[in-house]
Amino acid sequence: REGLTASLRLTRLGWLSMQPSWSPDGKEIVYQHRRPGRIGLRMINADGENDREILFGPAELPSFSPDGRSVLYTKLDFHGFYYAFSDIYLYDLEKKSERRLTHGARAYVAVFAPDGQTIYFAHHIGRDASTAISKLDLQSGKITPVKEFADNSVTVHSLAVSPDSKILALSLWRRGGYQDIYLLDIESGELTPITQDKDEDLDPSFSPDGQYLLFSSDRDDYRVANLYAYKLSDGSFYKVTNVLTGAFDPAVSPDSTQIAFTSYGSDGYDIYLMSFDPQSWKPVSIQKETLPQWSGFQKTNFSIKPYDMIPSLLPKLWLPFSDGKSVGIVTFGQDVLGKQAYQLIAGWDFEQGKPFYSVDYMLAHFLPVLSLSVSDTRDGRTQKISAVMPLTLSIFQQQWLRASYSHSDRPAKEPDHPAPWTEDTYAAQYSYQSVHGDDLWRDTLSVSVKGELKSPSDAKLYRRLTVTLSEVFRLPLVETHTLGVKFVGGWSDAEKPEDGFSLGGHMGEFALRGFAEKVQQGKQALIASLEYRFPLATIERALGYWPVFFDDVRGGVFVEAGLAGETLDIANLKVGFGAEISVSLTTGYFVNWALRVGIAQGLGEPNPSFYLTAGM
Q1: pTM to 2 decimals?
Q2: Which helix (H) or strand (E) holds 312?
Q3: Same domain, 506 and 598
Q4: What are phi and psi of 278, to 5 degrees?
Q5: Residue 298 gets which letter from DSSP?
Q6: N or C: which end of the chain has fewer CB within 10 A?
Q7: Helix intervals (H) in 434-561
Q8: Quick one: how many helices (H) and strands (E) in the chain?
C-alpha cells in the first residue's frame, strides 16, 4: 500500500497561495497570493520565516532572475482606452521599482533563460486566441518568434527552460481535451511529446542538473493531481508524491534537496516543502495514446453581414420598484460589443397623480464617451448631454474629464421658487482616483473638482465650484476594517442662498447626519467627516429559491462637522455623530445593493434622527 508523502506547510495564508519560485541561493521563495483584501507577490524565507509582500497588485507567475536581484512576472493592465492586455514586468528587489518590459504583448507566462538576458514567454496572437512562444532580449528589447500555433488548435499553458537553454518544456492543450507535456528544441523548432493521453499534465519544471523534468498530473485512479518526474536520459517516469488534496507548481531548490509545490488544505492553497529524493520515487509506466486528428472547426454557411446592434440592445428583463410615493419598472440593455447602453425607468407617481419616466443612453463607439438623458419626474423635466474623456487609465490610477450641458423646466416649489422656472447648466469636472497598497493596508484616494455655470430664469447667472477629497484606508487586519476621511468644499456667487449650497440630511454632497435638510444654506459650504466601518456578521444565504442573496452585515460609527452661509463663521459649526448598520445583498443575480439603517445625533438638537437608505 502506497503511503502519503511527508511535506511541510511553508506558508500560512491559505486562499490562493501558489506558483513558488526559488531564489538562486535557495534562501527565499517568491510566490503569488490572492484573497479578499490581500493580493500581490510575496516572499518567504525557506525556513518559513519573514513572509512579506514585495509587490501589491494582480501579478502572476513570479520567478527570480538568475542573479537573484529581480523578480519576473506578468500582469494585466489597460492598453490604451479600449483594451486590457497582459504584459511582462521586472521588479527590482533592491530599488523596489517596477520596469515594464513589453507593451501590448498579451503575454501570460514568462521565464528567464539561465543567461539572465533572454526571456521566453507565451502570448496570444491574432484575434482567435491562438498562442505562440517568443523570446525577449532584455538588453535590446527585441522580441523574436520561437514557435507559433496559429490555427488555435493548441494552447500553451505553461513552460520551463532547461538548464542548458536548449529545450523548452511545455504544457500544451490540444483540441479534444488533451493536455500533455512536450519538449521543444529551441534551435530546430521540433516538438516532441513526452506524455500523450487523456490525463491532464501541467506545470513542467526542470531539476537544476537537467536530469529530471517534474510536472503535475491527475493520472492516478482517484484523479487527484500529484507530482511526476520524467528522466530525460532514459525516458523513464516516476510518481513523486502521493497526496490527497493535489500537488501543483513543482519547483526544485537550487541545491537539489527540496521541492516546493502548491497543495490544498483547510485554509485553501498554500506552498509546501518536501525532500527531493529520486531514490524514493515510485517508477510508473506511462504509455502514449494515439490522439485523433483534429479536423478543424466545423464549416458553416452563415452569411457575413454588417454588425447589427439592435437584437442585443433590446431589453431582456424588467424589475419592479417602489419608493412609497410611486411605483414603476426599470429595464436596461447593452449591445454585445459594449458600445451602446441604455436604462429606462417609468411608472406612476401617486403624489403627483401622473406618470413619470427617465431615459439614459450611452454611446462608447469612440472617444469621448457620450451620454444623453431625458426625464419627466416630480422634480420637473430635464434634458442633458455629457461627454467623458479618460486622461490616464490604469488598474491603480485613473483620471477623467467630464463636460455636460443640461436644460431643466422646474415646477413651482415654495418657498424657494414660488413660480415655475427654467435653468440651463454648463458644467466641467475633473476626477482622479488612485489605489496604493502594502500587504493588508490599502489607501484609496479620490479627488474631484467640479465647476458649474447656471442660468436660471428667475435669477441672475451664477457660478458654483465644488471640490471633493476623500480617502479610504483599509486597516492592516485580516477582516475588512476601513477608516474613511472626506472633505467637501463649495463656493458660489449665487444671489439666493438656496442656489448656493444646502447643509443637512443624510444624502447628497453636503449631507450632515443628525440635522434636518437645509439646516444651513449659503454661498459657501464646508463639510468634513470621519467614518470607521467594520464587519459584524457573514450571512451568505439566499432567500429560498428567489434571486435574492444576502452577503454580509457591517457596522459603522461616524462623526461629521460642517457649516454653510454667506461667509464661513466657525461659530456656526454644526457637529453630528452616530452609527449605522448596512446589509449587502444581490438581487436578480448580478445587481448589488446596500441597505443602510442609521441613527444620528446633532449637537444641540433635541432628538436623534433615524434614516434608511438603499443604493446600488
Answers
A1: 0.87
A2: helix 310-313
A3: yes
A4: -55, -25
A5: P
A6: N
A7: none
A8: 1, 43
